Amino acid sequence: MANVAEDLQKLYDEIGRLKPTEGEMKLLPDLERLLEVSASARDCKSTPTASTTSKRCLILAFLVACSAVLAYCLTAFFPHFTVASIHALGYGEPENPNSPCFLRGPAKMTEIFRSPVDCSVCRNVTRVDISRDMSVEQFTKNYAYTSRPLVVRGALRDWTASKVFSFDFLRHLYLDEFPGSLDVVAEHCQFFKYKTEFANLRDVLTMSKERFNQTWYVGWSNCDVSVATVLRDHYTPPTFLPAGSASSRLDWIFMGRSGNGANIHIDNVGKPSWQAQIKGTKVWTLEPPRECHFECASMEVTVYPNDIIVLDTDTWYHGTTILGDEISITIGSEYD
Ligand SMILES: O=C(O)CCC(=O)C(=O)O
Ligand SMILES: [Fe+2]
């Protein structure tokens, strides 16, 4: 900056003046400071602390973004990778398998960041137990909160749902009887389109005959009270649930045709659930949590009309496939 006076002198030589005036000389220190600041700013050195902090932030943000991309890619290329696997490798036994989150969040994120599972829940389970007569005591002792999957055959024999529920019944209920319900469902409920193009339940219930006869499968939670009241006239929660346990007020309905079903996934709902097979036949594929891959077995079980499956969907990876010509309709709920 000592050159500022010389530079100024050169400038004056060029324009024909001999030297800066006294007043201009007094302003020189200010001019020098100004030039110093602008030069430093150009070199990103103006406020060293702020600049270092922002650089650190940028590096941190970059690393976080890289980790997220890496974790996502790992789960895509190595299906047995989850953050829970790292937990399990690092700590042996998991810390807390009961996640406080009750949301069915974006599937991939739920999967990557879920808490690891204690593999003793699946170590000795090699097949899905099937029962024809389940008492409350038996269920409470062996299944209710053990994560051991169970199918109870013929459990909804007394339900009128088996005779009443159909695609047309649901279409009429939502579209004609309670026309506002589809907006309630669209705004407050969850809708799983799986492999279809449907954006919401209205799209499903208004599809053309040709589309209906092709392959499709969807699921949704019903948040409309009027519709729920009608649905519940036709079923009651399973009689074998533990005394005092409450079924969630939210019904989950899954419906679709042969050849399709839910992709294999894991949930984060915080509670076990039951699902009643009202119509059609469905194969459930169950896989152990990825961190228990080498200790536990995968299984398949087929459910027929009138069967109820009880599953801890936070512990078991699960996917479904519809068999046969009949449309599959199920209703289910979580219990505590
Ligand atoms: O019934 C299905 O196809 C899938 C159900 C499901 O994913 C669940 O109940 O968590
Ligand atoms: Fe699920």
Automatic annotation (TrEMBL):
SUPFAM superfamilies: Clavaminate synthase-like
Coiled coil spans: none
Lineage: Eukaryota, Metazoa, Ecdysozoa, Tardigrada, Eutardigrada
GO molecular function: 2-oxoglutarate-dependent dioxygenase activity
Superkingdom to which the source organism belongs: Eukaryota
Gene3D superfamilies: Cupin
One Pfam match: Cupin_8
Transmembrane segments: 57-78
Keyword Transcription: no
Entry keyword set: Membrane, Transmembrane, Transmembrane helix
Residue ranges occupied by any Cupin-like domain in the UniProt entry: 138-293
PANTHER family: ARGININE DEMETHYLASE AND LYSYL-HYDROXYLASE JMJD, CUPIN-LIKE DOMAIN-CONTAINING PROTEIN
Source species of the chain: Hypsibius exemplaris (Freshwater tardigrade)
Keyword Transmembrane helix: yes
Protein name, UniProt field: Cupin-like domain-containing protein
